[in-house]
Amino acid sequence: MFKRNLRILLVEDHPFQLIALQILLNNHGLYLLTPALNAHEALAALERSDKPYDLLLCDQRLPDMCGIDLVEKASQQGLIEHAVLLSGLDAAQLADIERQARARGVPLLGSLNKPLNTLELLRLIAQTDGDH
């Protein structure tokens, strides 16, 4: 369990995967979830929010923007604290994206391959909560 209920924005363009991610997080005590099917919906949710989201969980391949670009934009505007990218890309491609994120100063905690490893996801999320 987490010390607090983190505010998490979930961005996944496959509705079934989005629902599955919500259920997975609910099952681990995380309930303050905002779903979005694309970057446009995510940016609208971010702009409506009265405070930054604790975490942006974002698919790398969205129909309207790359996930890393969405993370960078949200971070530059002070709309998120941390981010995790989710992707079906291979390990080398994900490592390259993580290098790009570090070079851009993006608050990326890491990236995960799909299908998600629940323990790895929870380990990354715990970094936002102080539960290392």
Q: Key features?
A:
132 residues, alpha/beta, five-stranded parallel sheet
Give a written overview of the molecule.
The relative contact order is 0.18. The chain has 5 helices and 5 strands; from the N terminus they run βαβαβαβαβα. It has 132 residues and is of the alpha/beta class. It starts with 7 loop residues before the first strand and ends with a helix. The protein is globular, with a radius of gyration of 13 Å. It has a 5-stranded parallel β-sheet, with helices on both faces.
> How big a fraction of the residues is strand?
15-25%
Q: Kindly name the structural category.
A: alpha/beta
Task: Work out the helix count.
Answer: 5
Mean pLDDT: 94
Number of strands: 5
Q: What is the percent of helical residues?
A: 40-55%
Unreliable spans are none
Major β-sheet strand ordering: 2-1-3-4-5
How far apart lie the N and C ends? 12 Å
- What shape does the CA trace take? globular
Give the topology string: H per helix, E per strand: EHEHEHEHEH
Describe the largest sheet: 5 strands, parallel
CA-based gyration radius = 13 Å
Q: Could you give a quick summary of the protein structure above?
A:
The protein is an alpha/beta fold. The chain contains 5 helices and 5 strands. Strands 2-1-3-4-5 form a 5-stranded parallel sheet, sandwiched between helices.
